[in-house]
Amino acid sequence: MTQFIFTFLNGLTLAGLYFxxxxxxxxIFGLMRVINLAHGAFYLLAGYVSWTIADKxxxxxxxxxxxxxxxxxxxxxxxxxxxxKFQYEELRVALITLGVSLVLAQAMLAIFGGxxxxxxxxxxxxxSVPIPGLGLSYPFFxxxxxxxxxxxxxxxxxxxxxxxxxxxxxxxxxxxxxxxxLGINVQAVFIWIFFLGSVLVGFAGSVGGTTNSxxxxxxxxxxxxxxxxxxxxxxxxxxxxxxxxxxxGVIGQFATGYYPTFAGIIxxxxxxxxxxxxxxxxxxKKQ
Amino acid sequence: MTRKRIMxxxxxxxxxxxxxxxxxxxxxxxxxxxxxxxxxxxALSMSFLNRNLGLMSLGQLFFSGVAGYIVAISSVTHxxxxxxxxxxxxxxxxxxxxxxxxxxxxxKGVYFLMLTLAVTLGLYSFANQAQEITRGHTGINSIPxxxxxxxxxxxxxxxxxxxxxxxxxxxxxxxxxxxxxFGIALKGVRDNEDRMISMGYRTMPLKMxxxxxxxxxxxxxxxxxxxxxxxxxxxSVGLVRSIDLLVIxxxxxxxxxxxxxxxxxxxxxxxxxxxxxxxxxxGATGILFIVVLMLAPQGLMGIAAQVRxxxxxxxxxxx
Lengths: 287, 319
Hints:
- The complex is a heterodimer of chains A (about 290) and B (about 325).
- Chain A is mainly α.
- Chain A is about 75% helix and about 5% strand.
- Chain A contains eleven helices and two strands.
- In chain A, strand 1 (about 130) and strand 2 form a beta hairpin.
- Chain B contains 14 helices and two strands; from the N terminus they run H-H-H-H-H-H-E-E-H-H-H-H-H-H-H-H.
- The radius of gyration of chain B is 20 Å and the shape is globular.
- A two-stranded antiparallel sheet of chain B has the order 1-2.
- In chain B, helix 2 runs antiparallel to helix 10.
């Protein structure tokens, strides 16, 4: 029973992290039809940046902010310099981002080496909370991640579907020419979306680099998690990411806890099963 | 047509005499020739699918990995003879194409790319986790070389000619398939699936056969990889390897079958030269890849056509 509850809590908090990671990917795709397959490399880069800054300043929050902003700027540069020209050629853009992830992977290996890193969590949230009725305790920082994910989820939903800026973004995606004719700079809107999506993955990398260790190969792992989450949930849907994160996080943790050898296969079987019935994912629109 | 035949004959003759004319044959036959042939066959499986169905698959290393791991595990851990394990591995790799194809072929474009990438990365994480089966991160090392009719393929030249034979046969098989009514129907599906459906074709079986055929090619390449590298580890099916393969296909020219081998030769030579100077050759290939994608998306094989089109456009504009 104790193992069950711990596994569930681990899965749930991991789902929070997956949500933070994959929301940027789905946001950019959903609004711009641009798929960033350097997403895993972005995550890892943010981990390194925030680790470095947190280590230098001895302040976790500075590290997290630095990770998020660096990635925001970096992602925007990648978009403007490499992707913007081909924005309407989905496959070409996806391939270019794979090239970016290859270059990044090598650059990070050259700078940070093959060792694994983990950022120290901030002291103000580094305590354990008791689980009522069981006499056990659970690290608060992991719950903090889940709370952050919920805040980001609600924030994104409100921003996109309730505010004027969200309306402009949605309109700019549906009919670029018409919105430009209304005097709105659609190119600037796209840049902001890419910035926001990259900030999200940057923040996720800072947080994830605190709850889990990271290093060479982490980019591939988190790209896989993000792909699984958005494929299961449906690409382009924030709600889909929430459902996908929950399934991949919780089922993945139970599989790892109870059948470690076949954990990967179990998550995969789930993915195939869902796609067999809904090829576009649980909340995805028909392609 | 005859010009094309002369070109094929020239390339084949060059490939046959290559071990005798290259400087430093011990190094270049293995690190240049044999390696390019192995990578080329893997890339061929990807090019075939892209050329005939318009689908860019990153799942080929999954099939290679399944076949490669089966050969490695059965020969090293269970002492199974290659005569049994190799056909079994190729069969298993090919059949896994049925399951993956059943799901992946419901999607296209960038979804197909993502799904197939997830499949390969899934094998990577399985290979890392399932230590009892795959020996985890260290992988399976010192896989023995095959001995066929008393010939030991541990030597450089026999392995090169074995790979050359396989590559020629598979290339010819792809060319042959494209000429059959099946191949022509495939092109119809690639260009306009809805029209093919309304003409009464059942397109799913057509796509499925093409996909399973490409997983067959990738499985053979997986076995070749095991014999060439003599080990297999999760990194053999990791993200970097998958992108490396994509680089070969795109740089060579993703819509040409020959592009697979042009790209493979280029990358093999590039890596062989650059690895002495710098450990950053993966980054270098990444930059090459981005430049090619931005400037010449049809790859090296397509550059001639691209230049011709541009010139025609220019003269057309000035006239």
